[in-house]
Design brief:
mainly alpha, 3-stranded antiparallel sheet
């Protein structure tokens, strides 16, 4: 029985055989014959592999479903616990934030439930159109977007705000997976270095650059960083050469980052504040300092659920990016370790789903969604514990938000849909 061919990162792909390189005789017919032989060889290899694999369609991945539901439940509880002092002070309604969060949770739950039953190949067909819609929203926010602080990230529709960069996260993953799947023959052919460079690195890089460029124009640096990391992960997992990726992506990314920082004083100030040990803890370093106090106040077992003291207007917007600090204060070191373990379990299960996915597209989409959650979770924890500068990164399943939660739950529906299709060796 033949084993499934995979890239170095474990992405399942179609079995291929390139044959022996043709000897240069100067006649075009010899090249044509060689190409035909190579194609015939690939088809035979693929048929032989498929004969050794039985495709099985079953229910959703239960461990992943349990992990998602646990994270959603804990996140919803913490939104209420962290938000009611601020809601009472600013909205005169202690239930303001949790009421909205429950509404978005219900809408996201409906979306997730529907997408679970949509076959993954339907997503594949709709990917180009969805990507164009995503680009349109990113362009629209530059024209009629609403700014909060220095960043112009939201589009207001009635009483609901949409953050197009959240839509871009999944649309970028889907588009890169769609492109790589369509051009897999060229991108994976290591004998043709030009094709593997152009089709496997440069063209996906153009897709990534367009999305990141539009988000960077919104002055949304953290969103740009996350999108860039997601895109690089997907391209790397497709089997692209690391050295060529570093050369093609690294230099432009560093140059764009330097230009952005020196043309946006606010972003540069955050980096300088992080590196300045003498920063004023009552001004620019206030939120980070109070967050660290909250983490330290939790001790081993925490002060108890709902008993945080730092959420009373010490930690700014405790229900948003710094919600992990309130979790640590109330649940302690043990609770922090357990939450990190949940995210690690999510990543492990997501990788398992991706490795068993039936084709390149579905595998890369599953990998991309898993990478997105993992990247955001650990970047958020690094921000609130002052390991990296404060860049405004939300904690998946926990941070308060409408479009971010709904889109995240939609992605979970897609991931669970892919998990329904796996393979079984005979």
């Amino acid at each position: 029985m033949r084993r499934q061919t995979r890239t170095a990162s474990g992405v399942p792909v179609r079995r291929q055989s390139y044959g022996k390189p043709s000897r240069r005789s100067g006649a075009e017919t010899s090249v044509t014959v060689q190409e035909e032989r190579s194609l015939t060889g690939r088809m035979k290899k693929e048929q032989a592999w498929e004969a050794g694999v039985q495709r099985v369609r079953h229910g959703v991945d239960r461990p992943m479903l349990v992990i998602i539901l646990v994270l959603l439940c804990l996140g919803t509880i913490m939104v209420f616990s962290a938000s009611y002092p601020n809601a009472l002070a600013s909205k005169n309604d202690s239930l303001y934030y949790i009421r909205h969060q429950l509404l978005w949770l219900a809408l996201g739950g409906i979306l997730m439930s529907v997408l679970i039953f949509v076959p993954y190949n339907v997503y594949k067909k709709l990917t180009p159109a969805f990507f164009l819609v995503s680009l349109g929203l990113l362009a629209l926010v530059l024209v009629m977007g609403t700014a909060r602080g220095v960043a112009q990230r939201w589009i207001l529709i009635g009483g609901f705000s949409i953050q197009p960069s959240e839509v871009a996260k999944i649309s970028l993953t889907m588009m890169l997976a769609w492109y790589i799947d369509r051009h897999f023959e060229e991108t994976s052919n290591r004998l043709d270095k030009r094709a593997s460079l152009v089709k496997g690195i440069l063209m996906p890089g153009v897709i990534l650059a367009i999305v990141c460029g539009l988000v960077l124009l919104e002055k949304h640096l953290s969103g740009t960083i996350i999108l860039g990391m997601i895109g690089i992960c997907v391209i790397f997992l497709s089997g692209a050469n690391v050295g060529k990726m570093a050369l093609c992506y690294g230099v432009p990314a560093v140059a764009a980052g330097v230009v952005y920082l020196f043309t946006n004083e606010y972003a540069l100030q955050r980096i300088l504040t992080h590196s300045d040990e003498g920063a004023d803890v009552l001004k620019e370093a206030w939120q980070t300092t109070q967050g660290l106090f909250a983490v330290g106040s939790g001790g081993l077992l925490g002060v108890g659920l709902g008993e945080s003291r730092l959420k009373y207007n010490y930690v700014s917007e405790a229900q948003n990016d710094f919600i992990f600090t309130i979790w640590c204060e109330e649940m302690g070191y043990v609770g922090a370790v357990l939450l990190v373990a949940l995210y690690v379990a999510f990543i492990w299960r997501g990788i398992t789903i991706a490795k068993k996915a039936p084709d390149t597209y579905s595998s890369l989409v599953a990998f991309g969604i898993t990478c997105q959650v993992g990247i955001q979770a650990f970047l958020n924890i690094m921000v609130v514990t002052d390991l990296i500068p404060n860049t405004g990164i939300s904690l998946p399943f926990f941070s308060y938000g409408g479009s971010s939660l709904i889109m995240l739950m939609g992605e979970m529906g897609m991931l669970l849909s892919i998990s329904k299709h796996s393979y079984q060796k005979k």
